[in-house]
Design goal:
alpha/beta; TIM Barrel; four-stranded parallel sheet; two-stranded antiparallel sheet; 10 helices; 11% strand; globular; DUS-like_FMN-bd; EC 1.3.1.89; zinc; metal-binding; tRNA-dihydrouridine47 synthase activity
Length: 250
């Protein structure tokens, strides 16, 4: 992002290859905190005739330690108006209130939902229907069953297919465990950066699903796909989502 000419060259090359097909770009606010770069890159983006720009309201340095900077996204919306460039805002979407607030405050053309959809895939229903869904553990288990069924249909039901499906399932569970049921929240709406203390769910399955332990994610996978193979180890790609070291099952 700090090499404007390089960005322009890449995008111009993509535009040449894509011809009239849509070309969209997604980027963070910048590299270092306090040094936003998107505004500086707008001339290069518009020169390449991109069709839309999605902005994740964080810097690379920041990672996920602070809330997304929607005020800067709003500034980019204004800067992009003379270029008729649609802006898509992204960051900390976990409820329909988040969606409506950011859409109204910033005048972005659209909102991108990212981690929020991994933590609660039903967020799109909540946005559409403008409500909080107190989804039960049994309903979530049915979603997991569907996910596993789709995985086995796609990858195959042999040993390799089962284990590949398990890997994808465990990656998802490393996010899904962060969902706190609406029925036990002290206040609404929930926030993506909240880190609630450990809690007991309303049933044993809900408690198991809330566990940040790799061991418990593996238990859930075994409920759906059978025992893991001897020597199995899982380390989530997003290591910060797991509060325990990788577990070997044998």
């Amino acid at each position: 992002m700090d090499k404007t000419n390089r960005v322009k060259q890449i995008l111009m090359g993509m535009r040449t290859v894509l011809k009239d097909k849509p070309l969209t770009v997604k980027m963070r606010v910048g590299i270092d905190d306090g040094k936003p770069l998107v505004g500086r890159l707008l001339p290069a983006l518009t020169a390449a005739r991109i069709d839309a720009l999605a902005i994740h309201g964080r810097t690379r340095q920041q990672r996920y330690t602070k809330v997304a900077d929607w005020s800067y996204i709003s500034q980019v919306v204004e800067m992009a108006r003379p270029h008729n460039l649609p802006i898509i805002g992204n960051g900390d979407m976990l409820s329909f209130e988040d969606y409506e607030l950011r859409k109204t405050e910033t005048n972005v053309d659209s909102i991108m939902v990212a981690r929020g959809a991994l933590i609660k895939p039903w967020i799109f229903t909540e946005i559409k229907e403008r409500r909080h869904w107190d989804i039960s553990s049994s309903e979530r288990l049915e979603m997991l069953k569907s996910y596993v069924r789709y995985g086995l249909e796609h990858f195959g039901s042999d040993t390799a297919g089962v284990e590949r499906t398990r890997r994808f399932l465990l990656e998802w569970l490393s996010f899904l465990c962060r969902y706190v049921p609406v029925g036990i929240l002290e206040q609404l709406p929930p926030k993506l950066n909240d880190r609630p203390p450990a809690y007991f769910g309303r049933d044993d399955l809900e408690t198991l699903m809330a566990s940040p332990s790799v061991t418990d994610w593996i238990k859930l996978s075994e409920m759906l796909l059978g025992p893991v193979p001897e020597g199995f180890v899982f380390l989530p790609k997003h290591k910060s989502n797991s509060y325990e070291n990788p577990v070997s099952q044998g």
